Amino acid sequence: MAVDMTDLGKRTKAAAKILAKAPTDQKNKALLGLAGILGKDRQPILDANAGDVSAAGAAGLAPGLIDRLTLTPARLDGIAADLRKVIDLPDPVGERYDESTRPNGLHLWRQRVPLGVLGVIYESRPNVTVDVAGLAIKTGNAAILRGGSETIHSNRALVAAVHTALRAADLPEDSVLFVDDPDRARVTELLALDEWVDMIIPRGGGSLHRFCREHSRISVITGGVGICHLYVEQSADQTRSIEVIHNAKTKRPSVCNALDTVLVERAAAAEFLPMVVARLEKDGVTFRAHENALPFLGNPLPASVQAAGPEDFDTEWMALILGLKVVDTLEEAIEHIALHSQNHSDGILTENRDHAARFLAEVDSAAVYVNASTHFTDGAQFGLGAEVAISTQRLHARGPMGLRELTTYKWAAEGDYLIRA
Predict the structure, then answer these.
(1) Axis-axis angle for helices 24-40, 73-88 (nearest 10)
(2) pLDDT tens for residues 167-217?
(3) SS3 call for 81
(4) Beta-carbon neighbour count of residue 74 at 10 Å?
(5) Of the candidates 327, 283, 325, 332, the residue with the CA atom closest to the CA atom of residue 304
(6) Could you give the CA distance from residue 21 to residue 3 in angstroms, rounded to a whole number?
């Protein structure tokens, strides 16, 4: 039977009003209970996930998507650890800032309040269920979660754990609701719930983001799609740069902060490009080399290298594939990134501080790095505990969206029976 999306919206909106008033200790109790379930009572979750993973393999899903889908005891431990980090972070709700007193005696400040109801649409990543639930509860937001059909059993088990934790903390179960229906029509219906839902957050591929922007009657935060670059200048420490590139590409190639393209200054290309191939091909990386990089890679080319096609530098690989290109100047590197990046995570490897400063100033991405792996773009790594998404737009937040990014504010004003002259 199809899920009644309007009913979900009404129930979640009602729960949001209760959750918005909940004290920090009560919200933290729910998060601590959920972390405990993930650690001690997790077998039903692992069993449900094993069924999803098996079905995904039989359906021929790409290895990268299956990796995103898979939960292990170690990954559940990591998710629980992130929840505990969120518990330890200050509750932004009610925070006062930008206080001032006008000449007429009017005392003003801004006060953080929850956004309301979040509609989160995501694919292949059941960890998002817990990340969103935890951050939403802590910030007094309710959430409607719509995962992909390939994660439906995992999400049922995870949301059941969330509800158990909410009940134990005497908070409404409807604070986090799950669209338990794989029919894609439910996505379109969710995007039309502007009376009940305050923000849509899609986490998936570019097609999902486009669909949400085109069909939503609700504000949409887009992100989580990235063609990530590292530019290697001739001044860079080549040995250490290789390890940064190796980390950014191979640590977890299926995620949005994984490296897609290496740009190398021409003066360093003859020595550096063969080093990149030799180091990374041992881990199964294959390469798409621009025509200007091919002469530096030997004749015949290594088996792991092939000439790049016309679309390769506009592809988010999400696999052990890496683009290679030679550039003549910093300006050319910045121009390439501006043309091909999706404003997620881009970096420079250099010992030239002036060029590092210029790169930081001119590359317009949500996260810009100097001498560090793009793989750091992550809520936990940035000290946010976890993230609900990585925004690549300019409004209302950029980069990993943690607790503060899930609040808005209201103006508060206090006078002494003050009237305007």
Answers:
(1) 170
(2) 999 999 999 999 999 899 999 999 999 999 999 999 887 888 899 999 999
(3) helix
(4) 8
(5) 283
(6) 28
Query: Cis bond leading into 300, ω under 30°?
Result: yes
Phi first, then psi, for residue 285 (nearest 5°) are -75, 135
Topology of 5-224+393-414 in CATH? Answer: Aldehyde Dehydrogenase; Chain A, domain 1 (3.40.605)
- SS3 (DSSP) at 391: strand
pLDDT digits (tens, 9 = 90+) for 26-42: 999 999 999 999 999 99
Domain with CATH 3.40.309.10 in the chain: 228-376
CATH class, domain 228-376, is alpha beta
Q: Could you tell me the end-to-end alpha-carbon distance of the chain, in angstroms, rounded to an integer?
A: 61
0.85 cut: is pTM over it?
A: yes
DSSP string covering 155-170: HHHHHHHHHHHHHHTT
Residue type, position 421, single letter: A
Q: For the residues of 249-302, what is the DSSP string, one character each?
A: HHS-TTSTTSEEEEEEEHHHHHHHHHHHHHHHGGGT-EEEE-TTTGGGG-SSPP
Backbone angles phi, psi at 332, to 5 degrees: -65, -40
Q: What is the DSSP string of 21-48?
A: T--HHHHHHHHHHHHHHHHHS-HHHHHH
Cα–Cα distances in Å, from 370 out to 122, 173, 260, 329, 348? 31, 44, 17, 17, 5
The one-letter amino acid code at 390 reads I
Residue type, 254: S
Can you read off the two tokens belonging to residue 326? 């030679």
